[in-house]
Amino acid sequence: MITPVFRALCTLGVLLATFSLCAQKKSTPPNIILILADDMGYADVQGYGAVYPTPNIFRLQQEGMKFTSFYAQPQCSPSRAALMTGCYPQRVGIPWVVLPEGPEAAKDKYFVGLHPEEQTLAELLRQKEYATACIGKWHLGHLLPHLPLQHGFDEYFGLPYSNDMGPEKFASWPELPLIEGNEVVEKNPDQSALTARYTMKALAFIDKSAKKPFFLYLAHTMPHIPIYASGKFKDKSGKGSYADVVQELDWSVGEVMKALKRHKLDKNTLVIFVSDNGPWLRYGNHGGSAGMFREGKGTTFEGGVRVPMIARWPGHIKAGSSTDAVAALFDLLPTVVDVTGVQGPSRKIDGKSILPLLTGASASAGRDVHYYFQVNHLQAIRKGKWKLHLPHGYDHVPEPGVDGADGKTMPQQIPLSLFDLDNDPAETKDLAAQHPGVVNELKQMAEDFDLQMKAEKREPGKSL
What we know:
This protein is α/β, with parallel strands linked by helices. The protein has ten helices and 22 strands.
């Protein structure tokens, strides 16, 4: 006979078990997936200005938050250094593109990469036993001490640098290596298969890591030139080769999201999609579009550094939301630190958590001030709507190339110039003469920060 007391105890037991399971589920740290495109311009995906559909990337926007003032660095390696360390790349000694023959700017006997004392996002997540994988382009040093497995990743599969860095470009460069773990497994791989191979590796990692927290860094080689699409996508967009390549990247995003849903992980995963810099305009129809913004990759105009960025995390980020708050690649590390509850880096960083912005707790949680560097030169500063360019040179593209051919560039100079980005995002109307007070304030802030950065900069890792 079931007595009322026994029935009450059973009910209490069920409630306690349910509470325990809910608490356990609630305390499970979210997975982190960071998808990085290479040289994708601001207007290269649906929702940002593309004239061709990218439905899976657009769905991320519909289910998450779209950023319209998000900043990368002007080039590949600096952006990746910022992303992995939470710092301006000048602070961590990676201000230039790392080349197969050594550092571009130093011209010395050393090959460089991240210093071993820099704590990457992957290393920080190991505090909570995250499984970590880097799949795709690394570009933070290609010698053994600088590869991903030495910087917090459990797995690596991809190219150690850009896909144009082979003997076809410079005879002194080696054949393009495809690396798995720490070993070269292929030379000169079929680049038309890279997006699909990266995607399959990403899906396999999700499958085997589904029962524990994981961090997937999927850094696509495309659409960096030379561009390649697989047979499934080649000549299928109706908008040219570049659109074919971007639509294959969009397919990859869709496959990753399917994997998350298959494992019932899509609600406990923060997914971020972003590009590493603006489009390489000198390659014309193979180089993407910056939309309304001025110039492209390699410059500190908006077209060179303002990139698409989307964040999706159901239950935390409002679906279909958008923000014009200023944020940057190096803000992602402290944001993930906040999201996961791990301890942040012991060394000084420049990033600021934008978690309050993502969750809607604060609409003004973006960056108050942003500095624009090209290599070691501070070229511009933004505060609010105002952007001040310090006098500097840049390469303009008067005649883009066609179908993969290199175009013509023309060196130009910009004097001290002030732009109102709210009303003139294309940076066409210099207002310096009308606002001398703003010019003086921003100029002084820039000079002070430049001196501070030079005094505090750290060395990269070096290998003979």
